[in-house]
């Protein structure tokens, strides 16, 4: 069954995100969906043709991590936006952030610090499904650094395409705009 690109047109109009930036970002996302489907089809064909174990098969298998995560992480990202940016700190997630980071402020400092690291990738707040603990993690490109057994709770794109159109090199300003638009209800709903 092929993956279908979701429509995130409702994000247009968010404060701090231009229409040009968002439309380009949607196009990039659609490319990951297309490529994930293409790779899955090609790998299935190669399996049927007895080409497992060839260098071509191996390289396409490696590529899956990049294309699939490029698709899925953008979905988490777009779906944790278009909110009012206000977290109820006495709610389930607010209390959990305080418990695991000492305070909400320390969590925010660590998450923003992760997001402003040099390099391209993602800053992600995860919940460890084994212990329930929350952790902020840097993901290089799309496929490297995912902690096993953890579920993404809040996903922030820090590839240059996510902000350079509107903010130039001022990534910290983009992160402020991102925070103003977080849909904390959607984020909290991912928490177990
Ligand atoms: Fe992106």
Large-scale geometry: globular
**Spatial separation of the terminal alpha carbons:** 28 Å
Strand content is 5-15%
The profile of the biggest β sheet is: 3 strands, antiparallel
Task: Note the topology.
Elements: H1 19-48, H2 55-79, H3 92-101, H4 104-115, E1 121-128, E2 134-140, E3 150-157, H5 164-167, H6 171-180, H7 184-189
Antiparallel strand pairs: 1-2, 1-3
The structure holds fe (ii) ion.
Descriptive tags:
7 helices; single chain; mainly alpha; binds fe (ii) ion; 12% strand; 192 residues; three-stranded antiparallel sheet
Account of the protein in words:
This protein is mainly α. The protein contains seven helices and three strands. It has a three-stranded antiparallel β-sheet with strand order 2-1-3. β1 and β2 (134-140) form a beta hairpin. α1 (19-48) packs antiparallel against α2 and α3 packs across α4 (104-115). Bound molecules: fe (ii) ion. Fe (ii) ion (FE2) binds at residues 25, 28, 74, 157, 159, 161-162. Fe (ii) ion binds next to α1.
Short description:
The protein has 192 residues and is mainly alpha-helical.
């Amino acid at each position: 069954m092929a993956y279908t690109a979701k429509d995130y047109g409702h994000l247009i109009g968010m404060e701090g995100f231009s229409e040009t930036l968002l439309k380009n970002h949607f196009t990039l996302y659609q490319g990951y969906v297309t490529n994930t489907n293409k790779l899955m089809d090609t790998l299935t064909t190669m399996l049927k043709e007895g080409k497992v174990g060839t260098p071509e098969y191996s390289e396409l298998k490696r590529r899956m991590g990049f294309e699939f995560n490029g698709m899925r992480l953008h979905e988490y990202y777009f779906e944790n936006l278009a909110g009012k940016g206000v977290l109820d700190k006495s709610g389930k997630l607010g209390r959990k952030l305080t418990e695991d980071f000492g305070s909400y402020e320390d969590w925010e400092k660590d998450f923003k610090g992760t997001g402003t690291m040099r390099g391209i990738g993602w800053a992600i707040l995860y919940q460890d499904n084994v212990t329930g603990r929350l952790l902020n993690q840097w993901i290089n490109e799309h496929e490297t650094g995912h902690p096993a057994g953890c579920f993404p709770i809040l996903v922030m794109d820090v590839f240059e395409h996510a902000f350079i159109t509107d903010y130039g090199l001022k990534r910290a300003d983009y992160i402020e705009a991102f925070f103003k638009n977080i849909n904390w209800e959607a984020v909290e709903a991912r928490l177990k």
